[in-house]
C-alpha cells in the first residue's frame, strides 16, 4: 500500500511538529525547564561518555504524531488497526539496522539498552541459570548481575575482572571461570572499558563450554556503524545495543541476532517484556540508522576515536593515570589521584567549572576515577586542537590553577565556536 492510500488523503499535508510557542503559552513553567536544559547542554562541555547530540531530523521524528500510535506486535502482524504507515517506518528501521550492521535479524523495539538485555536473557535463559559477565566493580553494567537489578535477582552471575595493573580483560581468567562455572551465557560489554573487545576470543571461550555469547555493545555500536571499531555481529549469538550514545539516535535499544534466534528474540521483546512499541522512537531510530550509513558518519566515528586518543594523551601528560594507558574508542577512564583528588570530588569541581562528566570504577581498589567520552564534542565539530585545550583546562581546574569564572570563560569560547545546534 502506498503512503497516500494508507493515509487516505491526497495532496499536501501540513506537518504537525514540536510547537515550542504553544508549549510556552500553555505551560510556561515547563517551557522554562526545556529552554534551560537546552542552554545547559549547549553552554557546558559535554563529556559524559554515554551522551551525544541527535540531529534535528531525529528530534523531528521524536516529536511527531507517530507518538500517538499504538502498535503492539510487529509489522504486518499488529494487535491494533491503522498500523499501515508505522509498519513502513518500523520496516525501514529494521532493514537499515540489518544493512548497517550486517545482521540477519534486527528487533528495534526495546525501549532502552536495559530492555534489550532483558529481552536477550529472556530469550536464552531460565531463572537460576549461571551467567559469566564483567563484574560490576570492573565496568559491568547494572544488567550484568547487580543485586539491585533484575539480572542479579533472577540469574546466578559470576564476574570476571580486568588485570589490576594493565586494566585489560584477562582472557585466560575468563576462560578459567567459564570452565569452572559452565555458564549458560557469556556476556561481553562494559560501561567503561576503553579498549576494543576481542569478540573472537569470547566466541572461542563460549564454544568451549557450550554457552551463548551475548555482546552488550551499547557503547561501541556507533563506532561499529562507522567502521571505527570491530563488530560483535559475526561472533555473538545476540548483540544488544542502545541507539543513543555514539550511534547518535534517539534514546532506545535494539537487539541483533542470527535467523535461528529471530523468533525467540522477537517474542522476548513483545509480548514477554514489553507492550506497545514506541513508533515515534522507532521512526527516529530509522532516521539515525540512515544517518549512520553515510560517509559523513564514518568520518565522524573516526574523528571520535582520534579525539579520544588526543584527549587521553593530554590527560596523561597532565599527570592523570589513564586506565589501560589510553583508548581505542570514544571512552577514557582516568584516575585523578596523582593530582590529589578522588573521582567524585574531581567530578564536582569540574561540574562547577562547566565541564560535565561521570565517575567510574577503577581496575584496582575502592576509589573512583573519571569517565569521559568524545562523542558529543565531536558531533559539535571539535577536533584534536580542541581536545588538547580541553585536557589542559581540565587539569588546570583540578589543580585549582584557574578559578571557575576563568574556566567557564574558556568553556564558553569553545561551545560558542562549536554549537551543537546551528540555527
Ligand atoms: C548504556 C548501557 C546499557 C543500558 O542502556 P539504558 O538505555 O540506559 O538502559 C546497558 N549495557 C551497557 C553496556 C551500556 O553501556
TrEMBL record:
<dbReference type="InterPro" id="IPR015421">
    <property type="entry name" value="PyrdxlP-dep_Trfase_major"/>
</dbReference>
<keyword id="KW-0663">Pyridoxal phosphate</keyword>
<feature type="site" description="Plays an important role in substrate specificity">
    <location>
        <position position="244"/>
    </location>
</feature>
<dbReference type="GO" id="GO:0032259">
    <property type="term" value="P:methylation"/>
</dbReference>
<dbReference type="GO" id="GO:0008168">
    <property type="term" value="F:methyltransferase activity"/>
</dbReference>
<keyword id="KW-0554">One-carbon metabolism</keyword>
<dbReference type="InterPro" id="IPR001085">
    <property type="entry name" value="Ser_HO-MeTrfase"/>
</dbReference>
<dbReference type="InterPro" id="IPR015424">
    <property type="entry name" value="PyrdxlP-dep_Trfase"/>
</dbReference>
<keyword id="KW-0489">Methyltransferase</keyword>
<dbReference type="InterPro" id="IPR049943">
    <property type="entry name" value="Ser_HO-MeTrfase-like"/>
</dbReference>
<dbReference type="GO" id="GO:0042803">
    <property type="term" value="F:protein homodimerization activity"/>
</dbReference>
<feature type="binding site">
    <location>
        <begin position="140"/>
        <end position="142"/>
    </location>
    <ligand>
        <name>(6S)-5,6,7,8-tetrahydrofolate</name>
    </ligand>
</feature>
<comment type="subunit">
    <text>Homodimer.</text>
</comment>
<feature type="domain" description="Serine hydroxymethyltransferase-like">
    <location>
        <begin position="24"/>
        <end position="392"/>
    </location>
</feature>
<protein>
    <recommendedName>
        <fullName>Serine hydroxymethyltransferase</fullName>
        <ecNumber>2.1.2.1</ecNumber>
    </recommendedName>
</protein>
<comment type="similarity">
    <text>Belongs to the SHMT family.</text>
</comment>
<dbReference type="GO" id="GO:0004372">
    <property type="term" value="F:glycine hydroxymethyltransferase activity"/>
</dbReference>
<dbReference type="GO" id="GO:0016829">
    <property type="term" value="F:lyase activity"/>
</dbReference>
<feature type="modified residue" description="N6-(pyridoxal phosphate)lysine">
    <location>
        <position position="245"/>
    </location>
</feature>
<keyword id="KW-0456">Lyase</keyword>
<dbReference type="GO" id="GO:0005829">
    <property type="term" value="C:cytosol"/>
</dbReference>
<dbReference type="GO" id="GO:0019264">
    <property type="term" value="P:glycine biosynthetic process from serine"/>
</dbReference>
<dbReference type="InterPro" id="IPR015422">
    <property type="entry name" value="PyrdxlP-dep_Trfase_small"/>
</dbReference>
<keyword id="KW-0808">Transferase</keyword>
<dbReference type="InterPro" id="IPR039429">
    <property type="entry name" value="SHMT-like_dom"/>
</dbReference>
<dbReference type="Pfam" id="PF00464">
    <property type="entry name" value="SHMT"/>
</dbReference>
<comment type="pathway">
    <text>One-carbon metabolism; tetrahydrofolate interconversion.</text>
</comment>
<dbReference type="GO" id="GO:0035999">
    <property type="term" value="P:tetrahydrofolate interconversion"/>
</dbReference>
<feature type="binding site">
    <location>
        <position position="136"/>
    </location>
    <ligand>
        <name>(6S)-5,6,7,8-tetrahydrofolate</name>
    </ligand>
</feature>
<comment type="pathway">
    <text>Amino-acid biosynthesis; glycine biosynthesis; glycine from L-serine: step 1/1.</text>
</comment>
<keyword id="KW-0963">Cytoplasm</keyword>
<dbReference type="GO" id="GO:0030170">
    <property type="term" value="F:pyridoxal phosphate binding"/>
</dbReference>
<comment type="function">
    <text>Catalyzes the reversible interconversion of serine and glycine with tetrahydrofolate (THF) serving as the one-carbon carrier. This reaction serves as the major source of one-carbon groups required for the biosynthesis of purines, thymidylate, methionine, and other important biomolecules. Also exhibits THF-independent aldolase activity toward beta-hydroxyamino acids, producing glycine and aldehydes, via a retro-aldol mechanism. Thus, is able to catalyze the cleavage of L-allo-threonine.</text>
</comment>
<keyword id="KW-0028">Amino-acid biosynthesis</keyword>
